[in-house]
């Protein structure tokens, strides 16, 4: 049995087929493909791990208490810190105000005492003046024109 006919294209076909060679760099391409596949597997594992961590974080976030009280506590803490920083100055101002109030209270007490003594002197002087004004009109044995007592 004859495979090739005279004048057929078989010899040319045979020549072309036997001339086929593996392209240069195919081994390097295969190595790079294996590396890329390994990198892809690592990336897929990392993605799975990240997804699991994300799900866990979302669970923890949803189970966490409300932020409002914590934010108010933070704000209150900041206000307290500010107040504590201002306290030494406020304590000094308070002490000065207490000293000023005590000095003013002492001055008021002293002025009240002077006023009381002045009123006593005024009343004594008024009685003395009345007695002096009344003396010329008093007659021995006659009733007093003011109190009706015998003089």
Can you walk me through this structure?
The protein has 151 residues and is mostly helical. It has a domain at 96-135. It has 3 helices and no strands. The chain is rod-shaped and about 190 Å long.
Q: What's the helical proportion of residues? A: over 70%
Shape: rod-shaped
What's the oligomerization state? single chain
Uncertain runs with pLDDT below 50, 5 residues or more? none
Question: What are the defining features of this structure?
Answer:
3 helices, mainly alpha, 151 residues
Topology of this protein?
Blueprint: H1 10-18, H2 26-63, H3 67-134
Brief digest:
The protein is an all-alpha fold. The chain has helices at residues 10-18, 26-63, 67-134. It has a domain at 96-135.
């Amino acid at each position: 049995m004859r495979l090739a006919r005279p004048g057929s294209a078989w010899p040319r076909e045979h020549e072309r087929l036997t001339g086929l060679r593996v392209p240069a760099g195919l081994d390097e391409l295969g190595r790079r493909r294996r590396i890329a596949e390994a990198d892809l597997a690592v990336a897929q594992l990392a993605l799975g791990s990240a997804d699991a961590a994300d799900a866990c974080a979302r669970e923890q976030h949803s189970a966490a208490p409300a932020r409002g009280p914590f934010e108010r506590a933070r704000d209150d803490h900041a206000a307290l810190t500010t107040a504590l920083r201002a306290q030494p100055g406020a304590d000094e101002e308070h002490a000065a105000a207490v000293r000023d109030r005590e000095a003013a209270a002492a001055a008021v007490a002293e002025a009240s005492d002077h006023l009381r003594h002045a009123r006593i002197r005024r009343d004594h002087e008024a009685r003395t003046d009345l007695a002096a004004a009344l003396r010329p009109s008093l007659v021995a044995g006659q009733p007093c024109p003011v109190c009706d007592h015998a003089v």
